[in-house]
């Protein structure tokens, strides 16, 4: 499964001199755009495993590791009572 369809994470690894803050911003955009029907924790773990060995000192590797430590929960959309008729 492609957990990075817009290549946000993979492209960040190609940017020389990218900062921690820039990686966090890219990661945040990736999270916001992520399909809520897919396990985001598995996606982060998979992406970390894919890139961490060949890029151990890259800031995005650290950001992905931080993301793993957070343990995201799936968002549930609340139904608006006004639209239920």
How are the elements arranged and paired?
Elements: H1 8-12, H2 20-32, H3 40-52, H4 59-70
Helix pairs in contact: 2-4, 3-4
Strand content: under 5%
Helix-strand makeup class: mainly alpha
State the end-to-end CA separation. Answer: 38 Å
The average pLDDT value, as a whole number, equals: 89
The percent of residues in helical segments reads 40-55%
Low-confidence segments, given as residue ranges, are: none
Number of strands: 0
How many alpha or pi helices? 4
Summarize the structure in short.
This protein has helices at 8-12, 20-32, 40-52, 59-70.
Overview of this structure, please?
By secondary structure, the chain is mostly helical. It has a domain at 36-71. The protein is built from four helices and no strands. It has helices spanning 8-12, 20-32, 40-52, 59-70. Helix 2 (20-32) packs across helix 4. The longest helix has 13 residues, at 20-32. It is globular, with a radius of gyration of 15 Å. The model has no long low-confidence stretch (mean pLDDT 89).
Features:
85 residues; mainly alpha; 4 helices
